[in-house]
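ok so heres the complex, two chains, lmk if somethin looks off
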Amino acid sequence: MADPNGSRALAGTQRTLARLLSKVEGGQKVTDLGLAEPGRGTARVIGLTGAPGVGKSTVTGALITQYRAAGRRVGVLAIDPSSPFTGGALLGDRIRMQRHATDEGVFIRSMASRGHLGGLAAATPQAVRVLDASGFEVIIIETVGVGQAEVEIASQADSVIVLLAPGMGDAIQAAKAGILEVGDLFVVNKADKPDVQPVVRDLRSMLALGSWGTGWKPPILTTIGSDGTGVAEVVASLDAHWEWLNTSGELARRRLARARSEIVALAMGTLRDRLSGRDVDGLAARVADGELSPFAAADELLHD
Amino acid sequence: MADPNGSRALAGTQRTLARLLSKVEGGQKVTDLGLAEPGRGTARVIGLTGAPGVGKSTVTGALITQYRAAGRRVGVLAIDPSSPFTGGALLGDRIRMQRHATDEGVFIRSMASRGHLGGLAAATPQAVRVLDASGFEVIIIETVGVGQAEVEIASQADSVIVLLAPGMGDAIQAAKAGILEVGDLFVVNKADKPDVQPVVRDLRSMLALGSWGTGWKPPILTTIGSDGTGVAEVVASLDAHWEWLNTSGELARRRLARARSEIVALAMGTLRDRLSGRDVDGLAARVADGELSPFAAADELLHD
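and the predicted structre for the whole thing:
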């Protein structure tokens, strides 16, 4: 088990990894696969979140290129809502990253919540652990959608990039979606489009309303994901954030919080599985008929 | 308790309602307030969801105007993520609806998840019940954000409107956010902007991929929320959907599903409260230190 660089642990073939991640996604514990020890935390985990259409996949691709040029192995987990409609659309995104498809130093995986055990909130840290143990030094968690669940998953990262773009809803819209307070870096993509500066300015005013007591003031950067402009600066800023995480003690604090939420998600998943075995339908019919209050039904469910 | 039109039940003053909804939001059961019987389901519940910036508040305002002109009382629940940044932004939205502020037949409320008991997934049906019992005939649930949690809340409605707009992410982006399959009506807002037809066309192709086995084929409409263009057609379409819900048996099926998810959310909330009283922090420290796997920690938490 003592394999300091981790690269030997799973031999690291793409096929083995894909199989392990399918098991994680299906709700199996990675402990069953001989990975009983928790990840040693050698990988850096980067979260990337933003509204649909801001260019998350393009920027992820540009980040991969940068990190590969520096010789780092990069794993990507693209978190998708489970939807019968998304197959084609996501395939399109994955194709945009295809130039990395034959690179053994890059692993890209779409994750959907098919299993139980706490759903994606529990499966994501497990998948991170698998990639970490396989020797990936940089792990990018890309979340589609800007809801609370997606924000929570992105915030399981060491550094969170919030991506915006002109014409895709302004900073106020981002604030509404609750993503401003999870950002360590703010990146306004599509900087070749008009109206980039108003987005930067609004973002600056919105961020001035927040309190950054921990000593890190989130920078606001601009990129053109499609040609890589500004992406080196994003990587430099991520390095600065990583340095700060390590020296300030914030990294330990975040990893503790992450462990906490993973434990609770796993425990809640187990409890949900137990509940679903009980007669919810019978109780629901009585509630819908006005025979029983939902509170009384919930009590009955728990005392079954 | 037998008060068929429900309007007397809570006297219906805005202040009483605001107080009741604060209690619901804070995690209290409405049964404690003398509303032990479940809502009789006389109100029609309309969900409105879509990406940030598509004009949800403006369209909600236009719908209120239409329903008020027809003499209907309208309640609005605007579901917001809890965010220290959103105060000002949401205030702006509420101001857009101010022309209804002095109308006793309209009640508008922003809901945030401050309580426990299953969070917004449990608080929203309770709030609907309070408005229903107060004699509101139409209840609009407007969700900010396009994540899975927000989609689930919107889908607690009888009829769900998915709102899109040109330039705010195309239909493929909407598909990614998982909102296509919850829509009963699709409305492309800001129809005075360029590029409306490509959005409608893309949406039509995406919807053709879905299966609508239940006999209702979701229509695609266009509106200009700011001047009310097309909103009468949306109301007519909602009436047709309501008619279909009642004649097809789908209404009963949806309300059963809604009761089911409310019961599970309440039960899970109770279980979460129980877990949070236990020593999660101590377990998290051991997981973060690599001393314990998260699975073992979750097991310990459950057997504490």
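quick notes: Residues 250-276 of chain A form the longest helix (27 residues). thats all i got rn
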